[in-house]
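Regression test case RT-17, inverse folding.

Input:
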């Protein structure tokens, strides 16, 4: 008998977006505007940074009822704080129908309050592990954080494809931070994403393992996105299988 045909390849889209606690360049805090930008991007999986308020109860910037009623997304339940959606502001949204098989929060070495969120997802026929992050402003601490996260990502590859994304806070084209990630993963360069009105810095990045093929990547720039936050969303489309 002939060998069974391999499963068909599947495509999916991811995005990373620092939403600046919902505060736009017009100094208005408008969660609904952020959700409209996410609808424009149309990703299957989104990693958010600065998704919670910094002080007080650190409540989620994006109310759950707005996400449920105005989008096709579901927050990954990180189970950290009652009112928060994220961990140190990092959160993951997945399109309805994507199974969340597991999730976790990760403590990393830091000067400022920083953390990483991760989830193992079933995206179509792909078992995908996602890491979302917002790295330190200090270059020395960024290197330490990148080394820790890259090692965790490398270990996760034993269970399937891995994507890492977030605001790396890195202005330089070549740095210790990128070198650490580059030992294990392919770094995509979607383009300048900060500041949103006149983007110069390539701070927001997406990285992936060799099990995935990047079909395309870019920065989502629209009139709404230019105003909604001081960062623009970055995205990437992948082929797996």
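Golden output:
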């Amino acid at each position: 008998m002939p060998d069974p045909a391999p499963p068909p390849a599947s495509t999916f889209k991811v995005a990373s977006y620092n939403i600046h606690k919902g505060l736009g360049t017009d100094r208005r805090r408008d969660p609904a505007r952020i959700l409209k930008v996410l609808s424009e991007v149309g990703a299957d999986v989104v990693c958010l940074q600065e998704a919670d308020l910094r002080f007080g109860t650190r409540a989620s910037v994006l109310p759950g009822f707005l996400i449920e009623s105005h989008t096709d997304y579901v927050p990954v339940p990180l189970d950290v704080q009652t009112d928060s959606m994220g961990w140190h502001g990092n959160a993951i949204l997945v399109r309805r129908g994507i199974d969340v098989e597991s999730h976790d929060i990760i403590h990393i070495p830091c000067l400022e309050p920083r953390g990483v969120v991760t989830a193992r997802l079933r995206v179509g026929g792909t078992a995908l592990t996602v890491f979302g992050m917002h790295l330190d402003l200090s270059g020395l601490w960024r290197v330490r954080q990148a080394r820790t996260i890259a090692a965790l990502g490398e270990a996760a590859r034993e269970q399937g494809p891995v994507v890492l994304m977030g605001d790396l806070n890195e202005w330089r084209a070549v740095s210790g931070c990128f070198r650490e990630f580059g030992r294990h993963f392919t770094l995509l360069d979607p383009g300048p994403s900060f500041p949103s009105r006149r983007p110069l810095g390539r701070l927001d990045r997406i990285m992936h393992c060799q099990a995935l093929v990047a079909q395309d990547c870019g920065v989502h720039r629209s009139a709404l996105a230019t105003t909604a936050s001081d960062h623009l969303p970055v995205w990437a489309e992948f082929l797996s299988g």
